[in-house]
Amino acid sequence: MIRAALVLGFFTSAAMGLVASYAAAQGDNSYPAYRVSGFMEQNFTYEEEADPATAFSIYRARVGVAGRLNDLISLNITAGALEPPNRNPQLVNGFVDFDIHPMFQLRTGQFLVPFGLEGPEPVFLNPAVERSTVIRRMNYFRMFRDIGIQASGSQNGFSYAIALINGTGANAAERIDPKDLLGRFGYQATDELALGVSFHIGTAPTLATEPDRFQFGLDATWRSDPLIIRGEYILRKDERPGDSDRNQHGGYVLAGYHFTEELQGIMRLEMHRPDTDVDFSDSGLTILTAGLNYYLQGHTRISLNYEVRSDRRQNVDLGNLLTVQMQIVL
């Protein structure tokens, strides 16, 4: 914990010092403008396995600074623990945005990669206490982030984000020459309905043979207060040298309903088939999640989720899971 605090403090102090120095150089100008941002999630979990287990944990804790240097340039520097269960503190976000035109924003650095809905969304915005298991299992990148450059924009209901990245994940050096190309195109079909399609073309960085990998995703969101319904479906193909390719697919549907401004109920059903060469009855995963969120202020909330989990892989005993989470967002 001391190490984590020191690292978080270093990144935050360094970033704020850079911004403060810039402010001093600019005199009384309105820029730069910055704010400290971050969040913490504390969980209590009860897992119904053959040997039931309970635990309190600091599930995530991140802090940083975000702000604008001028009308054109903004930055985000955030540090914290890696995705659970890894608690090692590292750089999370480290990127600069250049707001050139509504249809052309340039981002460079380490950032959330633009594939699907849950991946590029800050996790504290998710109506559930965690991204769906199927999205986490099919994700290639540590913390859903990588290092590279991205172009994005939106206009007249159309949006896009295309990134060229190392393909090795956050805080990892490039180990192969080919870069990964991925992106998402979105369309606001009506005031309530938003649609999206995503792609990812790349090369696995872990093997000397550099096998190809490919992902394709579809997503949709229906939002009409107090109801939200959204879902994703992903196809993934990984080349296996000297063998048939591994194909997998999966997705989820999530519904949320605000009974009051503070109280929201959610339901989520997810499915994952990790290998289409193996029968779903022998390898498939299904999870049904029911939950409640009580919003205290903004995105600060208390959440309760109960997951009914069925993992059909041999020698896997995945019990049901109860999670109570306190989420504090700056």
Using brief descriptors, characterize the structure shown.
330 residues, mainly beta, Porin, 16-stranded antiparallel barrel, 3 helices, globular, disordered N terminus
Written overview of the protein:
With 330 residues, this protein is mainly β. It has a single domain (2-329), classed as Porin (Beta Barrel), CATH 2.40.160. 11% of the residues lie in helices and 56% in strands. The protein is built from three helices and 16 strands. It has helices at 2-26, 133-138, 280-283, and strands at residues 33-48, 53-68, 73-81, 89-101, 104-112, 145-155, 158-165, 180-188, 193-203, 212-224, 227-238, 246-258, 263-273, 285-297, 300-311, 320-329. The protein has a 16-stranded antiparallel beta barrel. A hairpin with a 2-residue loop joins strand 6 (145-155) and strand 7. The longest helix is centred in the N-terminal third of the chain and has 25 residues, at 2-26. It is globular. Mean pLDDT is 88; it is low at 1-28.
